[in-house]
Amino acid sequence: MTAIDIPGTDQDLRAALADVNLPTLLLVIAELSGDDVWLSPRYQPEPIVVPEGSLFPDDSGNYSDEIASEIREAAFELLSNLRDRGGELPPPPDLERMRQLMEFSTAEEVEDEFCAMLLEETGFVDRDEQWRSQIRTVAGGEQIDNFQVLVVGAGLSGICTGVKLKDAGIDFTIVEKNAAVGGTWYENTYPDCGVDTPNHFYSYSFERNPNWTGYFSKRDELYQYFENCTDKFGIRDAIQFNTEVQGMHFDEDSGLWQVRVRRDNGAEEILAANVVVSAVGQLNRPSIPEFPGLDSFAGESFHSARWRHDVDLEGKRVAVIGTGCSAVQLLPKTAAKAAHVSLFQRSPHWISPNKDYYRPVEKGLIWALNHIPRYAEWHRARMIFGFMDRNWPAVPADPQWEHPERAMSEVNDGLREALTSYISEQLGERQDLMEKCVPDFPVFGKRLIIDNNWYPTVARENVDLVTDPIAALTPNGVRTADGTEHDVDVIVFATGFNTNQFLWPMEVTGRSGTTLRERWGDYPRAYKGILVPDYPNLFCLYGPNTNIVHGGSIIYTIECQVHYMMQCLALMLSRRASALEIPEAINDEYNAEVQQISQHLAWGHPGVQSWYKNSAGKVVNNSPFSNLEYWQRTHDVEPNRYQMN
Ligand code: NAP
Asked: How far, in Å, is the centroid of ligand 1 from the Cα of 606?
């Protein structure tokens, strides 16, 4: 039993209760009081609704003033009593209780599997227990003493891997090409760079941060979070910074991966490891299209992920090429500074309003997340319920739907309509821009971008939205196919990343002497996105077909993968196997299913041209599963599927 320890004054508590979400608070009161009167119809919240024109839910419960103050008053009585007289935390909910509480607080049916996932995501159930106890049985033995893991990258996935390996007592080294941790949140520093998944979900389940200052934090706060995790979990000493992996090969004789690294002084070295975890991400090798005349431009030019803070845009003529997530974030501040912006759009994206994008987290909520017992757990559970797979029903194709050219289904078409109205409303007097701004592919064909005042910025007098294709770069700027010369002083390439070449530019050679590049060509594929036949003991995190488009948090996906990888290690160690490999036939079967499903999802729609697809139209980046299904598929390792020796 854990003693309840609530700090602060009556005033602190009342201030917190004024800011918290009432359906969440009811779960806390029901749990701490042990009195289910708080789950009676009188306090039943209204169902979560999605306000028109927004894809983000209103989960306030819509209580009358009378009921709202009754709930707050009861919470005050209970919590101040616990603070003054002490008490003990009740045991964590079991599956049935989780379902009962979630169904009450959402006014919807909630599947058992979803509740099982929530029990882990909230920490009520320790998801690591199985692999931890399996590994402990071999601890101290020769097997684990001679076992070394090399992790490539100290971004979101690498940090997560390091934390779990350390917990398991397995020796590991992380090599990182940069001088710091954080990966994407270290490298991207463009104006308004931030996350588009709510932070209270976009954080490790084992390190919830109650102190996020915004619901969608900006880059510096995210970067600091990953720095803090590195120190808090004591993995910094295991990281070799400024060290880039050039290549690696599996040495059949020793059964070890031989990994060639280059230090920042140019020296090369071979590091040997039983297991390699590639934690290199999908979105960190900037892509600049090979426009004719690319090198002829005489002004300054740079990629969004390599923002040049030394180039002052004040009063300059700036070209921004690309209209994806990065461009949507960086455009408003750029246009406010520049004399003129020429914005080059190849295709418009769907953009969603979100009233909470710049909303600071209320002080009282921060207090509650820190000090009200169980509030943070239920807050996360409901956040996941509201955001994770809520959009999934709009993703698959309805074979009966009559307008497959523009939408996947009636629900999907409803979103198209709502978002089209939003564009029109946002453009105000500039309805002439409608045609250029409304995408012709279904919603969720590409990641839905969260609005950062895009349309009013595009409609500004000093911004030109150019949709003629780019023909060439010239010494003075950009020439479009219609022959127009767009003279500029600076070019910003917001043109995305080399995404289809997973693990690139590392040269990774398997048992048979074949490199991943040769094996995959432009069709990268892996079992569950993690394991590749012929490459034993190699685990890819955020690998092929694991990107998420419809919602969710990539940190959740990464935790699913690290969990699966740790179970594979536990399996190897307990079976005294030196190599674990997925057979070709199982990988083929899995990927045939991935492709079969993907064809019928929004991002597989024939009208979608994107980096999610390869030259043959196969979707190679995105997961074909809901986030819940991916959790299920990575929850338990299947020993019979692997070859081990
Ligand atoms: P992106 O989504 O790949 O967008 C690249 C843009 O450049 C697109 O508009 C693309 O046009 C355009 N482009 C590419 N090649 C071109 C060419 N040859 N000529 C003209 N235009 C060209 O890249 P991103 O905006 O950097 O975002 C990448 C991913 O990073 C996102 O999908 C998201 O997952 C992540 N991200 C997330 C956040 C966030 O959390 N808030 C922020 C930034 C990025 P088309 O659309 O026609 O292909």
From this structure: 19
